[in-house]
TrEMBL record:
Organism, as annotated: Parathermosynechococcus lividus PCC 6715
UniProt binding sites for Mg(2+) 1: E92, N537
The keyword Ribonucleoprotein appears for this protein: no
An example Gene Ontology molecular-function term: magnesium ion binding
Catalytic activity: N(2)-formyl-N(1)-(5-phospho-beta-D-ribosyl)glycinamide + L-glutamine + ATP + H2O = 2-formamido-N(1)-(5-O-phospho-beta-D-ribosyl)acetamidine + L-glutamate + ADP + phosphate + H(+)
PurM-like N-terminal domain boundaries: 73-188, 443-566
Lineage of producing organism: Bacteria, Bacillati, Cyanobacteriota, Cyanophyceae, Acaryochloridales
EC number in record: 6.3.5.3
Domain annotation Phosphoribosylformylglycinamidine synthase linker: ranges: 16-52
Protein name: Phosphoribosylformylglycinamidine synthase subunit PurL
Pathway note: Purine metabolism; IMP biosynthesis via de novo pathway; 5-amino-1-(5-phospho-D-ribosyl)imidazole from N(2)-formyl-N(1)-(5-phospho-D-ribosyl)glycinamide: step 1/2
Length: 761
């Protein structure tokens, strides 16, 4: 192995490294790296792998709790569900690959998150996704969403894991940089949780799964840079997946783990062989010697650089107990998979790579996986100019629309972000495995039964990205509060969080301020809800360099994936009205709340953006204590069997939430606002915030329900109206019988169902 400088400044830049980082590599090695070693440092020191800009901010997240069995640092978090059941779950992004090659980018995002789950020894039981695209009217957006949804459907459907929930939003800020975040859940099948730290000097290292090719070359570095007009040339950085092979890999891995012969396991995701060897060695405080000549290949003539940076899919690396390797290899061969011994654990804490009998690379494991660069940046002392300007907006400046409130409601329902997502989720198999209790679109969260028990798991993904743009701190709190609210609306007790932090460049003062403030909000809210963060993903540099060379970042989008435990599956409700005559209640801030109260506002609302073309104002301030009170009341009502339905108020406020309950249950509702002094009507009908939930209750439970509310939620509940028969109207009247909104079920359905099929079919 040569110790002379073999790389140029262009090579260094091509690996995503900065000059000072290269100097640090030379210092640590005591020599110049060769080409393969430079590539190893390039991927492992990328933001995607080492979180060099975000790690200091992540330390403020609460990560421990009485149910947390595994927190950040492993392939997935694990929580204790009781009765011997343990749930593994995690969310990750595949944004840049999906922007370049939507089908394979999204498909391999699903495959990657599934591997994180079953690498822990858990059988995958559910998938969710959070998607963001640009303007649906644009042909590019239509192409992207078709490809992404098809890719998710292809991989999830073929591998046999149901896609049970998610969210889809459209905004021009995502025009050149869509977001594709995939979340997976799995139930532990092994007595011991499988960890990734290598141990046992002399233990063999096994390569299992698929072969290695040149696909996905340098994907981690690619994911840590802005997208430009030249990014289409980075298609080799997009991986190609095989869900049928992954299905076999799931079964083979779980069988292998059950044998007790596996000491440690790591999937080959970002940075492939480099990441898996370095992380396993560093976490175990040992080294790994890897012989590339033994790696199964699908292409001829590959050199060490290509072997080490390939991100070919469906591959795993095991450390096996010495003497039991043949037993493990036989399992993988029986499933039609590759399985070979490619190396062994060594005492010297290095990753040593052999090729054609010579050392092709030798790097300290910790230098790649643990002791990586860390940038502590100064946060702006005051909000940036765009936020200060947005905060000058006041609702009094807003002219009332010329059209009727009924027309405004129908207009909002027909915007792609609020319209029906049936076009998306009907492509997903959400019933495979036969454990999906609540189907997509029927409730505020997905619900999965835990076989052999009366309990269930609820899961959701949420992020009000416009709020985060206008106020990252409050927006971060809102993401957690909304996720917890959605779980509460199906009767689930929130347990824990996995997050996906999608932001622009942290190297700009505004970008770093957004990231820092959002993390602070997430941390405060997670502490308030007692939902520790068990892991997740950071995806930075989500911005497009336009033709003038200016970066166009996305809205800061910290997606919160939250899981909750349902104590009794017999007591689960959806969002739709169930029975004519049921009483409708609003929990949370009353509708008479004045505009001076910052907890409910038109600032940052869907109404302001869609009807007035304005993104301004202060988004709602999140009252964490009130959120806890309201959510606890909702859960208690569900657990007692009092509530027939529950649905939170989010984008579009009261009127949109009422319409969604009507659409889901195909029943109308008569709403009469109680007496009181109201602010302007658009704030009443379409204002957002206020920790609000709509519930319906059978008349037989009215006395018990209202007595409970009077004791536990005084001043924060309102009886609004009554559920009507199927196919009837939604009517919202003032206290003096003046009709504000009157729309038929046919009008609601037509407005809500048509947008996505209109543009995509």
């Amino acid at each position: 192995m040569s110790h002379s400088p073999l790389v140029t400044d262009a090579d260094i830049a091509a690996e995503g490294l900065k000059p000072n980082e290269y100097d640090e590599i030379v210092r640590r090695l005591g020599r110049h790296p060769n080409r393969a070693e430079l590539g190893m440092f390039g991927v492992m020191w990328s933001e995607h792998c080492c979180y060099k800009n975000s790690r200091p901010l992540l330390k403020q997240f609460p990560t421990q709790g009485e149910r947390v069995l595994v927190g950040p640092g492993e392939n997935a978090g694990v929580v204790d569900l009781g009765d011997g059941l343990r749930l593994a779950f995690k969310i990750e992004s595949h944004n840049h690959p999906s922007a370049i090659e939507p089908f394979q980018g999204a498909a391999t995002g699903v495959g990657g998150i599934l591997r994180d789950i079953f690498t822990m020894g858990a059988r995958p039981i559910a998938l969710l996704n959070a998607l963001r695209f640009g303007d649906l009217k644009e042909a590019k957006t239509q192409q992207l969403i078709k490809g992404v949804v098809a890719g998710i459907a292809h991989y999830g459907n073929c591998v046999g894991v149901p896609t049970v929930g998610g969210e889809v939003y459209f905004d021009p800020s995502y025009r050149g940089n869509p977001l594709v975040n995939a979340m997976a859940l799995g139930l532990m099948e092994t007595p011991e949780i499988v960890k990734s730290g290598a141990s046992g000097v002399g233990n063999p290292v096994l390569y299992v799964g698929s072969t290695t090719g040149r696909d996905g070359m340098g994907g981690a570095s690619f994911a840590s840079a802005e997208l430009t007009d030249d990014s289409m040339g980075d298609r080799p950085a997009v991986q190609v997946g095989d869900p049928f092979l992954e299905k076999c890999l799931i079964e083979a891995c779980l069988e292998a783990f059950q044998s007790g012969a596996v000491v440690a396991a790591q999937d080959m995701g970002a940075a492939g062989l480099t990441c898996s060897t370095a992380e396993m060695a560093a976490k175990g405080g040992v080294g790994i010697e890897l012989d590339l000549d033994k790696v199964p290949v699908r292409e001829q003539g590959m050199v060490p650089y290509e072997f080490l940076l390939s991100e070919s899919q469906e591959r795993m690396l095991f450390v096996a107990a010495k003497g039991r390797e043949e037993e493990l290899l036989a399992i993988f061969h029986r499933w039609g998979l590759q399985g070979v011994v490619v190396g062994h654990v060594i005492a010297e804490p290095v990753v040593r790579v052999l090729y054609r009998g010579e050392v092709a690379a030798e790097v300290p494991a910790r230098a790649l996986a643990e002791d990586t660069p860390l940038y502590t940046r100064e946060c702006l002392p005051a909000p940036p100019a765009y936020v200060q300007q947005a905060r000058q907006w006041q609702p009094e400046q807003l002219a009332l629309p010329s059209q009727s409130w009924s027309h405004v409601l129908l207009t909002l329902l027909s915007t792609p972000s609020l319209a029906s997502k049936a076009w998306v989720y009907r492509q997903y198999d959400h019933e495979v495995q036969n454990n999906t209790l609540v189907f997509p679109g029927d409730a505020d969260a997905a619900v999965i039964r835990l076989r052999g028990t009366h309990k269930g798991i609820a899961a959701t993904v949420d992020c009000p990205s416009r709020y985060v743009y206008l106020d990252p701190y409050e927006g971060g709190k809102a993401a957690v509060a909304e996720a917890a609210r959605n779980l509460s609306c199906v009767g689930a007790d929130p347990l824990a969080v996995t997050d996906n932090l999608n932001f622009g460049s942290p190297e700009t003062p505004v970008g770093y301020w957004q990231l820092a403030e959002a993390c602070r909000g997430l941390a405060d809210a997670c502490r308030a809800f007692n939902t520790p963060v068990t892991g997740g993903n950071v995806s930075l540099y989500n911005e497009t360099i336009d033709s003038t060379g200016q970066p166009q970042p996305i809205y800061p989008t910290p997606v919160v994936g939250m899981v909750g435990l349902i104590p009794d599956l017999a007591r689960v409700v959806g969002q739709g009205w169930q029975t004519s005559g049921d009483l409708i209640y609003l929990l949370g801030l009353p509708l008479t709340t004045p505009l001076s109260d910052p907890r409910v506002t038109l600032g940052g609302s869907e109404y302001l953006a869609q009807l007035h073309g304005c993104v301004a104002g202060c988004p709602p301030q999140i009252d964490l204590h009130l959120e806890q009170q309201v959510q606890a009341a909702c859960r208690y009502g569900i657990h007692q069997g009092w509530l027939a339905s529950a649905h939170d108020l989010s984008e579009g406020g009261l009127a949109v939430a009422l319409a969604e309950c009507c659409l889901s249950g195909q029943r109308g509702a008569s709403i009469q606002l109680p007496e009181g002094i109201y602010p302007r009507w658009d704030a009443v009908l379409f204002g957002e915030g206020g920790a609000r939930i709509l519930v319906s209750v059978t008349p037989a439970q009215q006395v018990l329900w209202e007595a409970y509310l009077s004791e536990h939620l005084p001043d924060y509940w309102t009886r609004l109206g009554i559920v009507n028969a199927q196919g009837t109207e939604l009517c919202i009247d003032t206290c003096d019988n003046c009709t504000l909104i009157k729309v038929t079920m046919e009008e609601l359905t037509a407005a809500w169902r048509s947008p996505l099929p209109t543009y995509l079919d």
